[in-house]
Amino acid sequence: MVEVCLPGTGGVLPLENRWTASCWVEFQGTAVLIDCGEGTQIALKKADCRLSRLGLLLITHFHADHIAGLPGLLLTLGNYGKKTPLTIAGPVGLEQIVTSLMTIVPNLPYPVVLNELDEEAQDFELFGIHFASMYLQHGVPCLGYRMTFKRKPIFNPNKAKELGVPLYHYKTLHAGQSVVLDNGSLIVPSMVLDGERPPISICYCTDTQSVEEISRFAHDADLFICEGMYGENAQSEKMWKKGHMVFSDSAGLAKSAEVKQLWLTHFSPAMKYPERYLDAARCIFRYTEVGYDGIRTTL
Questions:
Q1: What is the tens place of the pLDDT at every residue in 243-288?
Q2: Known catalytic residue: 65?
Q3: Is 124 found in the same domain as 169?
Q4: 183-200: per-residue pLDDT in tens?
Q5: By residue range, what is the domain housing residue 20?
Q6: 221 forms bridges with which residues in the sheet?
Q7: Could you tell me if 202 and 185 lie in one domain?
Q8: In contact, 124 and 132? CB cutoff 8 Å
Q9: Cβ–Cβ < 8 Å for 112, 102
Q10: 35, 48, 65, 279: which one is catalytic?
Q11: Is residue 15 located within the same domain as residue 136?
């Protein structure tokens, strides 16, 4: 199972009732965080995200509402007793920006590994997850991310019982390893499995103009998390010039990408009640939800 949560859903600056946009994804005991604006560690705690499990931080770009909370987050992780490495990945310029921010948080009790993603090497594997990225259109280097989670084949306990396989061998076989029974019989995984299951994928894109490449990048995702700075179409031209989208832009991308579900996030501080504009998106893409701080699902 993959746990997904948006600890914050705001853009530009944190508000009393809305933290800056971030995304928490947990898989097999390890967590990935996308972006860390001011106060993100507080938003994570309020959303019941287990900071001790954080192994990877993905940065979309270097505007303050997406990275200014990094020093505080790093200190908080240390105070939670983190000893294992934290990998930080992001666009070109990551090493310079992160190194500068870390001058005020020296002597961390765990190593920090930097992975700067240029346009030639944007895919990598970590914690059994495949990460892909694409450069968006925002005026500064800005990345969208896609996470793909492979799923184990379907285990058929009836087949295992017919072959006389003890329960304590089930996990080994499900993991793809053969076992030898006490009677000397060799049991290979294919004898107790019912075929492959499609992977789970999550796509996250924020701070960008609406461009067709995003639809291809997000195609068939189980969950597409996309920005919606404003709900009104009247703001569309203004947002385009600033490298942002309105709800209908995001819904159009979701429809074109044939995703399973769309979550809107990264709302302007001037938009106090983003849920009031839900229909502007749903009339284009039915399976749209307006995100809120703490929204959570299991895939």
A1: 999 999 999 999 999 999 999 999 999 999 999 999 999 999 999 9
A2: yes
A3: no
A4: 988 999 888 888 788 999
A5: 2-151+198-298
A6: none
A7: no
A8: no
A9: yes
A10: 65
A11: yes
